[in-house]
């Protein structure tokens, strides 16, 4: 199954690319998406690329029948997997692939995250990829799960970025106010 998701984000491509995959933004996004954990377990950086491995723990939330099937496969209602990311510094591209917790030889998910500048204050975030499950009957379940998730989060990333920006602006204003106060007390 191929997928393609686009979000218009109210931030320049350069600013968003510098923000993505920082510890602060990762933690913020994990909270906003309700992930149980988003842990960077490996990171290597060169002049042109960052390679990292992230462990993600999330709750599986499906309809009753699909949830029962997922629980039997996963051994519970949590999904623990790792994402390997290769982010390029010289262009707005990041290749990624998922390492699943089960059926590693039967499950493949990989793709590309790209940013396309629209203007100085906006960009298009594009996430596309391929999901392939080599187990009878699971492709349909996976397609249903991914379709449900895609509908739930289609415009969510843009809203998360807006919230991030507003919280950082408040934090910056608070820091400036505190510095001004300290300067007045010093003088």
Topology:
Layout: E1 2-9, H1 13-19, H2 23-33, E2 37-45, E3 49-59, H3 64-74, E4 78-88, E5 93-99, E6 107-119, E7 122-133, H4 138-153, H5 156-186
Antiparallel strand pairs: 1-7, 2-3, 3-4, 4-5, 5-6, 6-7
Can you describe what's shown?
- The termini are far apart.
- This protein is an alpha+beta fold.
- Helix content is 41%, strand content 38%.
- The protein has a single domain (2-178), classed as START domain (Alpha-D-Glucose-1,6-Bisphosphate, Chain A, domain 4, 2-Layer Sandwich), CATH 3.30.530.
- Strand 2 (37-45) and strand 3 form a beta hairpin.
- The chain contains five helices and seven strands; from the N terminus they run E-H-H-E-E-H-E-E-E-E-H-H.
- It has helices spanning 13-19, 23-33, 64-74, 138-153, 156-186, and strands at 2-9, 37-45, 49-59, 78-88, 93-99, 107-119, 122-133.
Offer a concise description of the structure:
The protein has five helices and seven strands; from the N terminus they run E-H-H-E-E-H-E-E-E-E-H-H. With 187 residues, the protein is of the alpha+beta class.
Salient structural properties:
single chain; 187 residues; alpha+beta; Alpha-D-Glucose-1,6-Bisphosphate, Chain A, domain 4; seven-stranded antiparallel beta sheet; 5 helices
């Amino acid at each position: 199954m191929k997928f393609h998701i686009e979000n218009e984000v109210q931030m320049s491509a350069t600013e968003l690319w510098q923000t993505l995959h920082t510890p602060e933004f990762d933690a913020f996004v994990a909270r906003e998406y309700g992930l149980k954990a988003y842990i960077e377990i490996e990171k290597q950086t060169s002049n042109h690329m960052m390679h990292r491995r992230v462990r993600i723990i999330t709750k599986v939330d499906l309809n009753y029948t699909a949830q029962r099937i997922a629980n039997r496969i996963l051994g519970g209602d949590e999904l623990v997997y790792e994402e390997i990311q290769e982010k390029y510094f010289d262009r707005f591209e990041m290749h990624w692939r998922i390492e699943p917790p089960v059926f590693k030889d039967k499950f493949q998910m990989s793709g590309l995250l790209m940013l396309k500048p629209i203007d100085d204050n906006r960009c298009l975030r594009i996430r596309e990829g391929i999901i392939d499950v080599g187990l009878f009957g699971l492709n349909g379940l996976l397609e249903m799960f991914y379709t449900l998730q895609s509908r739930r989060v289609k415009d969510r990333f843009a809203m998360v970025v807006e919230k991030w920006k507003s919280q950082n602006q408040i934090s910056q204003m608070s820091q400036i106010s505190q510095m001004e106060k300290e300067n007045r007390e010093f003088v």
